[in-house]
Fold:
Amino acid sequence: MGQISILYIGNSADEINALNAHPGISLTHKIDAMAATAYLRAGNKPNAILCELNLAGGDGFGMHDLLRNDLVRGDQKFKYVSFILLCNEFQESVYKRAWNQEKRAYKQAIDDFYILPLTDIDGIVTRIHDLINYRKIGIVVGEYHMPLVKKLFDIVVASLALICLSPLLLAVAAAIFIESKGKGKIYYTSERMGTGLDPFLFYKLRSMRVGSDKQLSNLAKDKNQYASAATISEIDFSEPCPECAKRTDGTTCSELRYIGSHEICDNWYTAQKAKIDKSKPTFIKISNDPRVTRVGKFIRNTSIDELPQLINVIKGDMSIVGNRPLPVYEGKKLTNDEIAKRFLAPAGITGLWQVELRGKGGIMSESERHRYDNEYADHFARNNYSFWYDLKLILRTFPALFQKDPV
Structure:
């Protein structure tokens, strides 16, 4: 990774010194909102802005609004600048405000939220590199226009399909209602990341029991198809910190954290937490999911549960053929160049990896899924789009519908 330019706005001397000493950072420091605004309006474009919440002459949210609105209107290159908000302590109201901005417009959001002091500068540098790549890929996708023939095909096919399949949808809806004894909705919505990295509400017929979302975290530990043996699940308090072990005077390399009956230095806790997060699989798919109902199993095996996504296609959220729209928490992890290329293709009901997955009986590694997503993106991006390639994938979808364990 090359050196990144950071504008730090605030007056925390410890953070400024630590960032300035890092070999991967070229740091510019401005003490307040007025000085930072003047610096940015002069045309200076850092890779990232680290901004304290409380500033003389303004606050972090005001600086974010300046960057995403006024400066971007004057120079589109400011779109590529990542913005990280820094706070002296965790404040739920501040965090929710940053998150709500993200929910309103994902590409225009505050990119991350850190609590001072910054104990893992290497981790922050890595995160900024990821955000730079992520924001660039998002802007490229956001500015990409869907081929007219693909858009017209989507609207015509989705509209006709909904009309023809409406009796089937009504019958399945009634079956879901009866099996659930009138409890819960017959459809399911979740926020997904689609074309241009914009979140949208994704529609499916409900195939699980009411309240099944609450069981996901526990099931993912043991039954996630994409999990590997290398997955790390918890902090190892018995493992000593390498930096603390070098010290002979009994001091620690950073402040101590007290968790239950354990104590651990902040640097070693942060390093282990980063390793745990990195080891976790991006995708979650539960093998033999016990939450699925009897009707749910049938509509999943025949992909009838996917039919409401035709509404998403008509709305323009999705295409008939594309890469599967990801839950936002999954999409946010795909920030490096190799993987993020998948977002150069639109979100779709069916696509290359879904067809290949069904052909393999539902067994596919995470790396294979990345590869198939990127392969379709290569066929779609840079004016490589072929209507006939899409049509072949649609024709391959029909026999794959009757394979076991579909998505």
